[in-house]
Every structure is written in structure tokens, then in C-alpha cells.
Amino acid sequence: MKYLCNPLNVNYRYQFNLDQRLHGQLRICREAADPSMIYFEGRYYIFASMTLGVWVSDDLVNWENHRLPSDLPLYDYAPDVRVKDGYVWLCASSREKNCDRYRTKDILNGPYEKVDGTFPFWDPNLFIDDDGRVYFYWGCSNMTPIYGVELDPLTMNPITEKKVMVEGHPYEIGYERVGEDNSTLPLSEEEIEMRYQGFMKRNPAPESMLTDEIKLMIRGMLSQKPYIEGAWMDKHCGKYYLQYACPGTQYNTYSDGVYVSDSPMGPFTLAENNPYSYKPGGFLPGAGHGSTMQDEQGTWWHTATMRISKNHDFERRVGLWPAGFDKDGELFCNQRYGDWPLAVSGMKQDPWRNPAWMLLSVHKNVSASSYTEGHEPAKAAEENVQTWWQPESNAKDEWLCLDLGKCFDVHGVQINFADDSINMECPGEIRPGTQARYIEERDLLTRWKLEASVDGETWFTVCDKTQADTDLSHDFIASEEGYQARYLKLSGMEVPYDQKPCVSGLRVFGLGKGEAPAAPAFKAVRTNDLDMNVTIEKQDDTLGYNILFGSSPEKLYHSYMVFEAGEKRVGALIKDRAYYVRVDAFNENGITEGTCVPLQ
After folding, report:
1. What are phi and psi of 496, to 5 degrees?
2. Whole-model pTM?
3. Are residues 435 and 335 in the same domain?
4. Mapped to the 3 state alphabet, what secondary structure does 26-76 carry?
5. Domain total for the chain?
6. 432 confidence band (pLDDT: 50, 70, 90)
């Protein structure tokens, strides 16, 4: 058995962004987003934004990065890939020019044949129907919808007029509202204009920077309207599933919704199960703008964008989860424990399988050789990707030690390195464009050593990567046989650009020998059309809770993981739809399901 643990364990390249929204201020962070995943000639391929390449895998667990030719649109967002007639077709986003397409029969070695584009678009998705007809969907804005058109299968030029496919409805669809936990409704046009004028007074900019697109971008940013973006189409049992992302990549509620139709050009109806990809809680939230595909065993998978968004809104990662269609044709994705280890066997598996190992590290005691103010050792065990421990120096004798409180059977450790504010000159030439940037071309290094101990005195090495030639900022080390440990110690750290190593999560997974928690007591109350409050009674034997909800007791497809009891507002409901709610409890020993109740 092999195991993956989100985010995907790949090299996330650094971006040097000249953010026009901040008047050209340089922001530095790692980024990968908007993944398109395909299965082609026996291998899995993920094309993601701003990676300079493609990730390739034989098993969905071990991924390698391969550089792509520099004449491909590697600096354009949201690469889209589909297989048609033995070719892989690739395109990406641009608003400034016609978007060309490229096709190849060999992804890694090429050659890539260019097919001239005829119009600009953003967030593209190509779909080839069973009858050979070709359709195309695009759109990424909080001011415009997602469009669709039919293409000539030979020239890839439009043969119909574009048609509106999906628009935002944040007053009726709760998960489309912007803000953390879908907290904010859009402003009126008058309020938007008032805020725009105030913004420009506070942030004067050279007239040359204020293109119509930049003005529209600023108004959109101030509008609090949701971004409707990231189209992806799948066909299942004669039905067409047009997926879209909302409300914004920087929010914990970045998610994918889905509309269904009998025709690839609609009309489309909002599916019963929405959002089908939704992960607002846990260590690393977000599950929007992705793709859904079927592997050779018939198992469905969904890959999407997860958010950090501390150093820049576009500081993002990529996740992968089991997905599928239920007996009623509802598209779903299992993200209940969506950043815990997941067993992947290479055989058809139950998409709703529980994790093999439990989280052992949350809120456990952490010590360190040193720390800087605001970045104490405890931050590494908060289960919050937006906080981290940082030592006083970048010396290799700095260390971080986690105390699990007692011995456990440890089976997996995920080491998550964060980036504090990086101040350095850009090592290459900034490319102009809507998102002017330079992507780090060099292959950098992330190194460390992990040791374990039963008593804190005698140590054994779990994994030594002090001589590694990889740059894995979310490395995961699995051990199916396991080992006994109470203490886990991280040392010998070396990270890119000679930074002080920052650890946002020293996450440990395994099994205890005690009892699973008691079933939790809770109340769930619908407070308005789009919100519910779930109040959970605290239990001493519990480390966290999973709030599950859906359209019936058998379809609790949505989840929100929390680590504290008390009241939690969930803002992803849809107006005039009924819901059922269940709260499960978990600790180091297992998961206990609560009682399912109708939402009142």
C-alpha cells in the first residue's frame, strides 16, 4: 500500500510577483494552482499554473517534475489539457492576446505543434464528447460569467456564438459568498463606485498603470462579488457535469460547484450536491479550481487548489481526493479528512474509506532550540498552515521537538516548511503581463533530519535528508509497519535562499491503543437561508470534530473539520434546500460517528 498526504508532495516553485494591485510591490512566495489532471498512455499527468513543467506519476503518490519547452505558455495561468485522437491538447489563459493551442503525442519529449488561436480567454477547458464533437468553456471574473461554445474539431475555431453557461448567485447560493467562511454579500453598484473613488485617493497610481483591465480588476476586488471561474466538464451516464470554482482563491472556502445538463451547451441546472468540492477546515483549507478524472481502475479523482495566502493571495498548493458519482448521478468528493494520509492501492477503492491513521500531533507540546517573537514552537502543532515556528537563526544546529505525551505507533510524518517574508532581489527578469512575475528556474534544496525517541534520551533516525537534492516543502514520510515513538525531533534544516527555516506543521499520524471518543452532543440550527450554527459540547477525550452535512442522511457529502468545541457558523447552504447534519468526534485512537439530525 502507498500513501499520499495533501498537499501533493512536489516541488512548488518560488514566484517573484510585481503585484499591480500593490503598485508594483515585489512579493515572493511559492505557488502552484489550477491543476488539470489526465491519464495518458499509462501515466498520470498534472499541469498546474506557474510550475514551468508538468508533474508525472505512475501511482498518484510519487510525482516527478519535468520541465516543459519554454515556448509553451508557462507564464499563463490555468493550463488546460485534454486527450483527443491520440494527441494531448494544451492551452492556457491570456486576456491580452489570442490564446494559441499546442498538441503533442509525447508530453515529456515533444515536439509540440502550435495551432494559432483566434480569441483571448481565461481559465479554459476543452471537452471532447463521445460523438467527436468538441466544446470549449472559459471565464474567470467576478464581473462576467463562464461562457461556452462549440469548436470545429479540425481547426479548433468556434462554430457557434458564445453562450452564458454559469453565473454567480451569492444571494441564493451560500458557498458563493466571499470572505472567510463565506461571510460577505456583494455591494451595490453605488457602494462599489464610492469605494473605488476612495481607494484611488488613498492609492494614487501613475496614469500609465491604470488600464481599463486594471480599473475593472480594482472595482471587482472592492465589489465583494464572487469570482466564477475554473470550468471543467465531465460526462457520466449521458449527463454533462459543468464544474466551476468560487468565490475566491484566497479564502478557506475556495470550492468547486457543479451544474448538470442533458446537453453540453445547456441549459444547466444547479446539482443537488453543492459545492461538491469543499474543504474549509483542517490544516490546509481550500479545494477550488480543479479537474475531475477517472483512472484505469475506474476510480474517480478530483484535484484542486488549496490556499495558504499569507505572503500573497496566490500562495497556493495542490490537493488530490477520491471522487465519484452516487447512484442518483450526484458528483461528490470525499474531503472529510482531506489533509490526512490516504491509502492508495492501485485497485478500485471505496471513495468514502476512513483514514488508516489518526492525527497525533495537534496541540501537543513543542520545544525548540530558539524562536522569534510571534513564531513560538507551539505554532508548528496548531494545525494551521498560516502560522509557523521560526528559530532565531538559519544555523543547522537549530531544532524543533514534538512531544506526543506518550508512546504511539507512528506511521506517518508530514514536514511542512513555510515562508516568512523574504527580502531579496529577483534572480531573473520579470516578465510583463496581468501578473508580472519571474518564476525561479533553479532547482533549489530543502534538507532536514528527523529523529524519534521513546524516552527523549535515546534517539533513532526516521529519515535523513541532509544530503537530499530535492526541494519538497511538504514532505511526507510513510511507514506502513510503523514504529514506537513519543518524541519527534527535526534538525539539520536547510531551506532555499538561506532563510531561517519556518515550520507550519510537524504533523504526525499513527494509532493509539486507547478508546475512540464518545459520540458528541451537538445542536444544529439554520439561522437564515444560507447559514447554520452548529454548537458542539466539549469532550475531554476528543481532539477534534468533523461537521458533516448534506441533502439526506445517506448523502452527508460536505464536511468542516474543527479542533475546538463550541459554536461554529457554516455558510455554505443553498436557499430553499433541506439539509441533514451529523458531527463526528476523533482522537488518536479512532473516529466515532454522531447522530444524524435534520437541520431545523
Report:
1. -60, 155
2. 0.95
3. no
4. EEEEECCEEEEEEEECCEEEEEEECCCEEEEECCCCCEEEEECCCCCCCCC
5. 3
6. confident
